[in-house]
Specification:
The protein folds into two domains: about 400 residues, no CATH class; about 70 residues, no CATH class. Helix 4 packs parallel to helix 13, helix 11 packs antiparallel against helix 13 and helix 16 packs across helix 18. Helices cover about 65% and strands about 0% of the residues. The chain has a two-stranded antiparallel ribbon with strand order 1-2. InterPro entries: AbgT (IPR004697). GO terms for molecular function: secondary active p-aminobenzoyl-glutamate transmembrane transporter activity. This is p-aminobenzoyl-glutamate transporter. It holds the Pfam family ABG_transport.
């Protein structure tokens, strides 16, 4: 797949001019790394001003009076220099994401994920193809952003082979992988990444608060089922009728699977069953070390150790596949493929260095607590609480996604402000995290700053040479509006019925 530069062959239509304006404005934003550097400077200056006027905040939970501390002071300078390395190495998301990518990256580098996706989509029964593409796209965030460029061309090939419009398949693949990015039946890297940031933000108010990767799992599992049906219905009832019958021809892309891929998948499946069977036996064992002292699982060492468990699962199935297909010949091949996956995370690691400093400074100065407490008091005084404020936050995040595409960067920006603020209003941080995720995911596919939109537009132009950004946006809008509306309804239902979003996690604080 080769991405070509999008060139305007003619004056953009009126309907797409506002999108071009958003794109130009968004491109003027600094790189996320420099954005966090700038925010850290803002915190530094604000701390001096707040400290100069003797600002302070009283924590409602403890009654403790916290003065705002200046970073430009003897104590502040010592903190900035002395904590710089520990801010970075101790930043919760860093270890979680690196650990997850050791396993997931190994599966990707040896070709297991690619082959599994191809086989899943291309072997689906004809009458279930639409649902299979939608389900696969939603589940594919296990491969992170790779899902946004792997599935769309495969789905278009399947649709074309069935005599259906290939652009409809491409649109469904991109929409389900992008707008459904936060949902999954598995615990994936996104869960680890966001929960780590949420934990850091929540500890600005409660030093003992922990948000785990499974805290949104129940909601995500239900989302997979509901969104699969909705995405398929939009494709069949809106997208395909609008596109009509495809008349052209396009060069078919052949699979580059190794000859032993089938045996590799079989052995990987056997390894997965053996691993899960052994894990289930260990969990259900009467005196299992994975249970808590009362013999339960909420909380338990099993949930707190879910990341290492998932890591070992991916390594197990990847090694089984790699050895069978010849992708792994020696133990050195395993470490080399893992190293390749780690190299892909170079940009993320650089970003986290700046983000960790910003969040640590924000917390040390107590500005985060001041904003949270006073913001909560303001909202309470004007009676703007409950579901309306949550819905407004979702819409705000959806708008922000048009300007800042990176989900982790945006959450690192929002979490230190909104998580403590909503905690003061009585909401669990995992609930706020879920509200953020549904807004961020559903608007992924209409953000002009989405770097994969250019790649997908290139795929579309293989079938429609006149297609432009407006074409892609118009195809994605029905999915975005449907997913966002449905997710808001689900959040409201979980809130009103008091249903848990994950093991033991409800919307309101206990």
């Amino acid at each position: 797949m080769v991405a070509t530069t999008h060139q305007q062959a003619h004056e953009p239509r009126r309907s797409t001019r506002w999108l071009n304006t958003i794109e130009r404005l968004g491109n003027r934003l600094p790189d996320p790394f420099m954005l966090f550097v700038a925010l850290a400077v803002v915190v530094l200056i604000a701390s001096v001003i707040f400290a100069a006027v003797d600002a302070s905040v009283v924590l409602p939970a403890t009654g403790e009076n916290q003065p705002i501390r200046s970073l430009i002071s003897s104590e502040g300078v010592r903190f900035m220099l002395g904590s710089m390395l520990t801010n970075f190495t101790g930043f919760a998301p860093l270890g979680l994401v690196l650990s997850m990518m050791l396993g997931i990256g190994l599966a990707e580098k040896i070709g297991l994920l690619d082959v599994l996706i191809r086989r899943t989509v291309m072997s689906a029964p004809r009458q279930l193809v639409t649902y299979t593409v939608a389900f696969t796209g939603i589940m594919m965030n296990v491969a992170s952003d790779a899902s946004l460029i792997l599935l769309p061309p495969l789905a278009s090939m399947v649709y074309h082979g069935l005599g259906r419009h290939p652009v409809a398949g491409l649109a469904l693949g991109f929409a389900s992988a992008g707008a459904g990015f936060t949902a999954n039946l598995l615990i994936v890297g996104t869960d680890a990444l966001l929960s780590g940031i949420s934990t850091e933000a929540a500890r600005l108010i409660d030093p003992d608060m922990v948000v785990t990767p499974v805290d949104n799992w129940y909601f995500n599992c239900l989302s997979v089922v509901v969104l699969t049906v909705v995405a398929a219905q939009i494709s069949e009832r809106i997208t395909e009728p609008r596109l009509g019958t495809y008349q052209g021809e396009v060069e078919r892309v052949e699979s580059d699977e190794p000859a032993s891929a089938g045996r590799g998948l079989r052995n990987a499946g056997i390894a997965a069953l053996l691993y899960l069977g052994g894990l289930a036996t260990l969990v259900l064992w009467p005196d299992s070390p994975l249970k808590n002292d009362d013999g339960g699982l909420i909380p338990s060492p099993f949930l707190s150790g879910i990341i290492p468990i998932i890591l070992l699962f991916f390594i197990t199935v990847s090694v089984a596949y790699g050895v069978t297909t010849g992708k792994i010949k020696t133990s050195r091949d395993v470490s080399e493929r893992m190293a390749e996956a780690m190299r892909d995370l170079g940009g993320y690691i650089v970003l986290i260095f700046a983000a960790s400093q910003f969040i640590a400074w924000f917390g040390w100065t107590h500005i985060g607590s001041w904003l949270a407490v006073n913001g909560a008091e303001l909202l309470t005084s004007i009676n703007f609480t409950g579901l309306p404020v949550i819905i407004c936050y979702i819409l705000f995040t959806g708008f922000m996604n048009l300007l800042i595409f990176s989900g982790s960067a945006k959450w690192a920006l929002e979490a230190p402000i909104f998580v403590p603020l909503f905690m003061q209003l009585g909401y669990h941080p995992a609930f706020i995290q879920m509200a953020y995720r549904v807004a961020d995911s559903s608007t992924n596919i209409i953000s002009p700053l989405n770097p994969y939109m250019v790649v997908v537009l290139t795929f579309i132009r293989k079938y429609d040479r006149e297609a432009g950004l407006g074409t892609l946006i118009s195809l994605m809008l029905p999915y975005t509006l449907a997913f966002l509306s449905l997710w808001i309804v689900m959040l409201v239902a979980f809130y009103l019925l008091g249903l848990p979003f994950g093991p033991g996690i409800h919307a309101l604080m206990p």
